Amino acid sequence: MALGNRYKSAPGAGTLAALILVLVFGSPWYADWAADNTNPNTAGGWWLRLLSWPRWSFDSDNSLRDIIVGDLKAILLVVLTALFLYLLPGSQLARARGTISQFFAGWASYIFAGGFAALLTTLFLANPSLLGAFQAAGNGASYGLFVGWIVGLATLGGYRGTR
Question: Taking the domains of the chain in order of start, what are their residue ranges?
């Protein structure tokens, strides 16, 4: 028996999609595969490498600070996606589920979450700078722009979370 969309909340589905994206494509195994098997000078290769942006790891070759910052960025991306999905009013104001406003609210949530996760984790680097924070936020927002449509699709058709 399949559960229909009436049991799926838009914020829950979007958060689950973000979690899967981070767990699968941010994993060390995928990041290594993308670095070894894709060409960064092609659109497909660039996009496959971009998918691994919120890398998490438990590599003992890196400093503890680098490991924590990378992991914190991945965790914050998922947490902030959930937060922005609840806060963005686009799908709240839509009269019917499955409208384009839900798609854009999910997509925008991932863009904002990527930018803010990168910005916040820059504060924990060894030598944080304002320029580094701005560049990191731009990279995070760029990741959200090109990958966030997946989260947007996941939110389509769900209810807002309060019935």
Answer: 5-155
